[in-house]
Amino acid sequence: MTESSTTFGDAITAPFWSAAEERRLVLQRCGACGAFQFYPRLFCLACDAEDLAWVPAAGTGIVYAMTTVHMKVHPTLEPPYVVAVVELDEGPRLVSNLVGEPAGIGDRVRVAWREREGQPPLPVFEPDGGAA
Ligand code: ZN
Fold it and tell me: What is the pTM of this model?
């Protein structure tokens, strides 16, 4: 077993967590066909190429689906909280939480970061009140 005290995640996900440490949201992008994907994989889901690079995401998207959790299922998550599928402007969807002001399906959101003890921050999303 290899010692990797400073790296979070495995060989495929470590670049994502390294960027998260700097509050940067990154996605894999295929050098062959240009497709973005998340979560990270060893090959492109669109064309099977293995020419994948990590690129910055805009950090903006829309609420694709959402639900409010009222039961306590995790010691650090105090209900009620909102679990959402966010469709990033680059295309990939990720499961996250909505924070801040209430948002609805189809609303614009932008990434924020939830700090965690001893782990990289998690990307969560808040309403994007910026210029439309
Ligand atoms: Zn591809």
Answer: 0.89
Residue 11 Cα, ligand 1 centroid: separation in angstroms? Answer: 20
Q: How far apart are the CA of 52 and the centre of ligand 1, in A?
A: 8
57 alpha carbon to ligand 1 midpoint, in Å? 17
- Distance between CA 35 and CA 40 in Å, rounded? 12
Q: CB-side exposure of 67: number of CA atoms within 13 Å?
A: 4
What confidence score (pLDDT) does residue 130 get?
61
pLDDT tens for each residue of 20-58: 999 999 999 999 999 999 999 999 999 999 999 999 999
